[in-house]
Amino acid sequence: MRKAFEIGFGESSAELVIDKIPVQGKLPSWLEGSLIRNGPGTFNVGKQSYRHWFDGLAMLHKFSFKNGLVSYANKFLRCKAYDEARKTGRISYSEFATDPCYGIFDRIKEVFSPRITDSAKVNVAHIYNKFVALGEPSMQIEFDPETLESLGVFLYDGKPNQHITTVHPHFDQVKNEIINLTVRFGRVSSYRFMRVNNSETRDLLAKHPVKEPAYQHSFGMSPNYFILTEYPFVVNPLKVLFKAKPFIENYVWKPERGTRIFIFDRNTGKLIKQEITDAFFAFHHINAFEVDNELFFDIAAYPDPGIIESFYLDKIKSEENKLPGGEIRRYRINLNNRESVDYSRLSDEGIELPRFDYDELNMSKDYRFIYAVGISSKSKNSFYDQIVKSDIQSGLSKTWFADGCWPGEPVFVKKPSASKEDDGVILSVVLDENKGNSFLLVLDAESFSEIARAEIPQPVLFGYHGNFYGTN
Ligand SMILES: [Fe+2]
Questions:
Q1: CATH superfamily placement of domain 3-470
Q2: How far is the CA of 217 from the centre of ligand 1 (A)?
């Protein structure tokens, strides 16, 4: 097995607090704040192993920048799934694609008291005065951004039972709103757009009943509309509630349904338009905006959900298949006409984990650059090995690739005095297969050349999302 996969999908590392890690190159003096990242901290518990990249016990990582220096800390998220795994040496809670080993009596017990993971490992968010680790089950975990200590459960939707949330809430700086999409399973299942008003209260802004809910990892939001993209990758809710199989394995691909696009008015909550287009699947909406009577949304699309299959660890490790890359598509919907949806492809690069200058250009038509991970055409790797910058206006791309280096999601940080969209840096945690550890890579976002790297003494397992929080 390739060493990178042995390390990056392997065992936990130590919990560290290091005041100063060695830096090669020169960090920009304006870079002050912390990159906080989330992801699996281990794929093994005792003698048991998780099966899929989206399983595992959550670990937070923090790289802090001040005066040209970098500190590092990491900590497992303390939650029931973590505590029980440590106590029993066994996987005790259901994950995305791994269930605990059940006996028949355990399975009956499970129906009445489901043990769905609270190990929120996919993203982090700053929600009013709280920092929260986000996972797809409804139990999010608050943490202290200074110490990374876990502080307890945070709920989007008031009730911790049998529904999922996306790990990509939207922040509307103009309306000062934080919104997320939740999916509730039940006798009548529903998609629900929730506004998080503060730590305590929520408003249900829009609700749509659904017989067979689709898997939802993100949603689109423009100034006036919510976009719910219902891929035909759907589940009979009873199967989730009665846990016939691990969570994601209950979903079925029904391409004959096509992908349905629901548009809700953000002010009234009303469903104003429903379109059906050819079947596709996506994890990530990227951006959405309106021009006159047209609504546009950009999305990293796949022809089918085969990408989920490709993330089973045995597939990645055996290097059996090359990962499919997400195609950056721009969907266009005429809000006045019926049956008017089409799309164009914005880049030739296959990407995943797309980011852009969200703080300034979310819901704006003027954005131009998408930063993401991809697979180099030089390699035939079964996992992401390069960082891509796609210019969606020209269709041209720049890439960063280094043999034996495996970069994670690129996070853009804008220079405070920036006059151009890409005036800033890209931060990415990179696993160095040759040295057996990880480093924080700092790229000039415009040229995509390396300006610095800061090395830690151990590897960071392959993770998903993170954010940079400036000190100002
Ligand atoms: Fe995501």
A1: YVTN repeat-like/Quinoprotein amine dehydrogenase (2.130.10.10)
A2: 6
